[in-house]
C-alpha cells in the first residue's frame, strides 16, 4: 500500500520547468530516497507535497485521499535551510510548534520533555536557541519536526551540519521511526547513507524522473555481470578478463565478465577448473549508478 502517490506532476516558474510529468509511489512504512543533483527538482516536489506551492499539472494522493490542507497535520518537514527562532527559548519553541501541528499543550509538553531527555538536551531547555551549538540547534529542529508523530516525515538533507557522532544518532532515530511505522521521504544529493537506510529510491535529473524502484532491484538491473575471483590455477579461457594481479598470499585475483550465466553456474564451472579461495559479484553502488545515470542524461 502506498501512502503517497505523485501522478504526472509538472511545475513551471516563468520559463523554467522545475518538474516535468513526474510520477512516483511511496510505500507506507518505507524510507524512500528522493535523489538528484542540486537543481534537479527535488525541492520543488517537496514544496508541492507540503502545499507551499501547487502543481501546474498533475495530482497528489495522500493516505488514499486527494492531498488537502488537513494533511499538513500528518506531515513533518525538516528543510535543508533550518528555521528556528534564535531569540526564543528551546522549550517554548518546541511547545509552540507542537501546538501548531495539532497537539494539546499538555501533550506538547510531555513529548518535548521525552525528546529532550533522549537527545541529552534537558539542561538546555530554557536557553535561547542562539546560545546552543549548531549541532544542538539541529537536534532541536529534528525534534520539532517529529514531535507530532507525523505519518509522513520529509527530510531534506537531514545530516547537513552534523558531526559524525550526531549524524549517527539521527540516522538511528530515522530507522527507529520507520520501525514504528513512519513513512520517510529522504531527499539528498549525497549518496553515503542511501544504501544503508533507503528501501526505495527515485532519481530526478533536469526536472524528470529517470529511475525508480527498490534499491535491491535497481542494483540488480544495473549489474554489469562483473565478478572477482581469488584462486589458484590457470585463468579460465571462457571468461572475459578485465584485470589480473597477484595477491600477497601468492594467489591470483581476477576480475572478469561473463554473460548469460548465473552465479551458481559460474561457480560450478570454475570449481571444475581452479582452486577457489573467494568469489563475489561486483555490484555497482547507488553512488555509481547515480553518477552513470546523471551523466547519461547530461550527455544525451
Provide structural commentary:
- This protein is an alpha/beta fold.
- The protein folds into two domains: 2-219, 3-Layer(aba) Sandwich (Rossmann fold), CATH 3.40.50; 224-282, no CATH class.
- Helices cover 32% and strands 31% of the residues.
- The strands form three sheets. The protein has a six-stranded mixed beta sheet with strand order 6-7-8-3-9-10, with helices on both faces. A four-stranded antiparallel beta sheet has the order 2-1-4-5, with helices on one face.
- The longest helix is centred in the middle third of the chain and has 16 residues, at 164-179.
Q: What name does the CATH topology of the largest domain carry? A: Rossmann fold
Do you know the CATH architecture of the largest domain?
A: 3-Layer(aba) Sandwich
Inertia-based shape: globular
Number of helices: 9
Distance between the termini: 35 Å
